[in-house]
Amino acid sequence: MDSNLIQAINEIYPQVRFAHDDSDHVIAVVPEQYKLESIERFQQSPYRLKQQAVLQSLESFLKYTEAHKEESSVIFFDEKELIARLIVDYHERNDLPSWCDHKAIYAAELDERWVEWRRKSNERMNQIELAQFIERHVKDFKDPTGAEMLTMATNFQVNRKVTYGNAVNLSTGEVQFEYSNASGGKGTMTVPDTFKLAIPVFKNGDHYEVEAKLRYRLHDENLVLMYELINDDDIMRDAVSGEEGMIVKLEASGLPVYLGKL
Prior knowledge:
Blueprint: H1 3-12, E1 17-20, E2 26-29, E3 51-55, H2 58-68, E4 74-78, E5 83-87, E6 102-107, H3 112-120, E7 125-126, H4 127-136, E8 141-143, H5 146-158, E9 163-169, E10 174-180, E11 186-192, E12 194-200, E13 207-219, E14 222-229, H6 232-241, H7 246-251, E15 257-259
Parallel strand pairs: 3-6, 4-15
Antiparallel strand pairs: 1-2, 4-5, 5-6, 7-14, 8-12, 9-10, 10-11, 12-13, 13-14
Helix pairs in contact: 4-5
């Protein structure tokens, strides 16, 4: 403890006594009714920086890190909760601990499109439900394009009151359904067997190519449809720990990145 501080306290509170504990740390023996108050708030500037910044994007978190990092600064990253924590005034050494009062935090938020596409994967829908889902997410399609998928959705809407017969897998990678209506009219409808999306995993993050397979069942002349995302688990891992993932971007700050939380 600073000797000047001890002297100042003794001048204000002469009955306060100081001693050393087993670790040679200074302890104060304060009589009852005494109250020690910091005068830091009256100073022109605080003794040390104490704050926690909450950032809303990885880019902002990295900018804040670059602006405030010190030689002892570190980053902790929780892979399960997807939370990055910067501790600017981290301990220099075991025998030189710090208060760790200056922090910044970024909690990655999954993009709403990514969440909904994963949630609806393998969920059974009729042709109208699938058509409406496609219409809501038409901008997410890469191959076939959104315009082509919208045409397919429109065909489903137009032919909502038909019964379906055979389904044939074409050499083009498409599926062709035969259908008939109540007046005896017949026709065919062709849909892609697989399609690709381009959507971000994290809000305001990079877009990833997601593959999906369209699946179908013919049940009592009714068409039951669903899609299955094929590589979404791999993409999720890549977005976190891949070559261009979140961990690599944190390491680009030049600070140690520890997987875990403090």
